[in-house]
Write a structure and sequence with these properties.
Blueprint (H helix, E strand, L loop, with lengths): L2 H19 L14 H15 L20 H11 L12 H17 L7 E5 L2 H15 L4 E5 L5 H9 L3 E4 L17 E7 L11 H10 L3 E6 L27 E4 L1 H4 L7 E5 L35 H13 L8 H21 L3 E3 L7 E6 L5 H18 L5 E6 H7 L9 E8 L5 H15 L2
Parallel strand pairs: 2-3, 2-4, 4-5, 5-6
Antiparallel strand pairs: 1-7, 6-7, 8-9, 9-11, 10-11
Helix pairs in contact: 1-3, 3-9, 4-9, 5-6, 10-13
The structure holds pyridoxal-5'-phosphate.
The site of pyridoxal-5'-phosphate has 13 residues, from α5.
């Protein structure tokens, strides 16, 4: 644990304890006490069990979208959690609700929305997308929701939950959507993913906006993974118009618990038009009494929500602003750089080939000294397992249709329907310096 975070947390908790006792002396009921020996035994067992995790903190872990939160975000979360505010009704946590509103205004501004918007934090990207699709259905009750085959599987699933018909749009090799094959009359909302979960691809928002506007179709951006990369829209990502057009969308989802340095339990949904708040309208016999002001629970499908999540994100954005040359910009630039570095090493290598050039910080690659797709899959799985067994590197696997694979790499004989390749998410800035070493470890792991 980061010493700085420990120090600040210790001090802040003392301060809160003093505040707690200012209401008069009290003590915890003995029914809640546990002996030191027992607690110590449990915590020592816990430490043993938690050590069975993969080393998400270490740059040798370049597998899934996983990393610990920033130590200071963790400290802010722990501090708020000692009070445990609930950001449902305002009286559940006035300061953390205020911080949530401030954070939402910050994020709305970051994505280019005006001051009049609607939005709140959620437990996850899944819940945030569910709300966005629910509003999509309420806005166009009889129409379909369209998304590409690279969209997160949650969209198809949530269409089923919401009993809305989903429509999968085909994509060409250059990444464009095959809109000619879609009947625009049937579609109410189209989902565009900026930073797909598989390979971090950026879908062509610039192609979709004029089409959607012409036909009165709403646009939902799923930027659960990629959203924070918008800080680099005028520099590293300036060749990708999608990032500069996000404010054109009707709703946006971003996950601060992915690239926002937060612990799990922090997604976010934003709506450009605050009048969608009408869909949330409900009365409650229990809540909303302390203030005429907007209670966040009035615009959220979830009831209890961790105020600590808002506090941690608020503190993080105070320390790491959403700027190109300060705060998030330099962090994400290193992540992008790590993926590019790995791609360049693969370009020069005889043993590893990149599946395609990375758009964000996720790279797909495979052992190249193979003749068939079945051999690529087999070798990829072997390397993946060897790294974990030897504790030298941790990757993830990714399955693609052999047809799509073959269009990019026609030199391999197709003898299977799909091919499994290796995949690395470089979501820690420490990956940038570590990539050359990681690459050599992987090459050494290929038999
Ligand atoms: C991760 C992700 C989701 C799901 O979000 P959770 O926070 O895991 O529930 C949805 N869409 C995209 C693009 C994602 O990357």
């Amino acid at each position: 644990m980061d010493k700085g975070a420990q120090k600040f947390l210790g001090k802040a908790l003392d301060d809160l304890t003093a505040w707690g006792t200012s209401f008069g002396a009290w003590s915890q009921d003995p029914v809640l006490s546990v002996s030191d020996e027992r607690a110590e035994a449990v915590f020592s067992r816990l430490a043993q069990r938690l050590k069975c995790n993969y080393p998400f903190h270490h740059p040798a872990y370049a597998g899934q979208m996983l990393k610990p939160p920033h130590p200071l975000a963790w400290a802010a979360y722990a501090m708020a959690m000692s009070i445990n505010p609930n950001n449902h009704a305002l009286d559940g946590g006035p300061p953390s609700s205020e911080m949530e509103k401030e954070v939402m205004a910050d994020l709305a501004g970051f994505f280019g929305y005006g001051e009049d918007f609607l939005g709140h934090l959620t437990a996850s990207g899944t819940i945030a997308n569910l709300e966005a699709l629910w509003v999509a259905r309420q806005s166009h009750p009889k129409k379909k929701i369209a998304y590409s085959g690279n969209a997160h599987y949650t969209h198809e699933r949530m269409c089923s939950v919401l009993k809305v018909e989903g429509h999968k749009i085909a994509i060409s090799d250059d990444g464009s959507f095959d809109l000619d094959a879609v009947d625009p009359e049937e579609i109410g909302t189209i989902v565009v993913t900026l930073g797909t979960t598989g390979l971090g691809e950026v879908e062509p928002l610039d192609q979709i906006i004029p089409w959607a506007k012409e036909h009165g179709i709403r646009i939902h951006i799923d930027a659960a993974y990629g959203g924070f990369f918008r800080v680099l829209k005028d520099s590293d990502l300036s060749n990708e118009p999608a990032w500069s057009l996000m404010q054109e969308a009707d709703s946006i989802v971003v996950d601060p618990h992915k690239h926002g340095l937060q612990p799990y339990g922090c997604g976010c949904v934003l709506f450009k038009d605050p009048s969608v708040g009408k869909f949330y309208k409900h009365d409650s016999p229990y809540t909303y009494f302390t203030s005429e002001e907007l209670h966040l629970g009035e615009i959220s499908l979830e009831c209890s929500r961790a105020g600590a999540a808002a506090v941690a994100l608020w503190a993080t954005l105070e320390m790491f602003p959403l700027k190109e040359d300060e705060g998030f910009g330099p962090i994400l630039r290193k992540c992008l750089g790590a993926a590019k570095r790995m791609y360049q090493l693969a370009e020069l290598s005889k043993k590893i080939k990149a599946y395609k050039e990375p758009e964000l910080d996720i790279l797909g690659y495979f052992p190249s000294e193979c003749e068939t797709t079945s051999k690529i899959s087999q070798k990829s799985k072997e390397v993946f397992e060897k790294g974990m067994r030897d504790r030298t590197f941790y990757l993830s696997l990714y399955k693609i249709s052999s047809e799509a694979f073959s269009r990019r790499h026609p030199e391999y004989k197709v003898d299977t329907e799909s091919v499994t390749i290796l995949r690395s998410v470089f979501m820690k800035p420490e990956h940038y310096d570590f990539v050359p070493q990681l690459f050599h470890r992987i090459v050494d792991g290929i038999s």
